[in-house]
Amino acid sequence: MSYILEALKKSESERNQGRVPDLGQQMRMIHRNRKRGIPAAAWLALALLVNAFVMAALFWPGYGFWSADPDGAGEVPVTVEPARAVSPSTPVAADEPAKADDAEDPAGPTDMTAASGDRGVEGVSAEVVRSEAPTVIVPTVRGAPYQADGATTDEAWEGRVPHLVELPMAFQRQVPDLVFNSHVYSDDPWARSVMINNRLLRMGESFGPLRVELITEQGVELSMDGQRFRVGVVRDWSSPR
């Protein structure tokens, strides 16, 4: 009985093939299970793993294809030049008499070497002492300029030295104008100086017909044609006309 029912259903389905289904007909949907493939995460992990192996093979230190040269491959060979033989500057024939002299006096070279060594040690020690010794500068004591070249001094000039205004008018007219720019007095005669007409003078020096005999605390003593006179430095001197 069941066999007959199945045959009827089969024939009914064969007749219904090719027909357009209507609204009243029940349709039967058959769903087939899809085959599950490999997920995308697995493919991504596999790609990263392959990439890591490739990078390691290329750049692994010491073993990769693009790594540095193996040990000893990058070292530059060092070439050691052989030492050049120093040729004697004197000919062999000239050495033979020296050898004969050495044979006659075997103690000569030893004595000369010892003497040269002693001289070398003495020279080095002398240079060390000379470099370490301080330099002592001794100032040269210069004599008073007014005592040289026959200059007169206080003891040589007898009597009171007159002032220029006390001398005759004819003598005063011969004395040129005097402008005192500066006056320096000190217990040391060499440190004394006076500037007359923009010229620095010391005792014993001359300018024109006048000669500086002595620089005093109040002024200066000059001489002209053997006549000595004094002038104060407070006021300039103008020759009378």
Automatic annotation (TrEMBL):
Domain Type II secretion system protein GspB C-terminal span(s) in chain numbering: 175-231
Keywords linked to the UniProt accession: Membrane, Transmembrane, Transmembrane helix
Entry's Gene Ontology cellular component terms: type II protein secretion system complex
Top-level taxon in the UniProt lineage: Bacteria
InterPro entries in UniProt: GspB_C
Sequence segments annotated as region (Disordered): 83-123
Transmembrane segments: 37-60
Protein known as: General secretion pathway protein B
Organism, scientific name: Marinobacter daqiaonensis
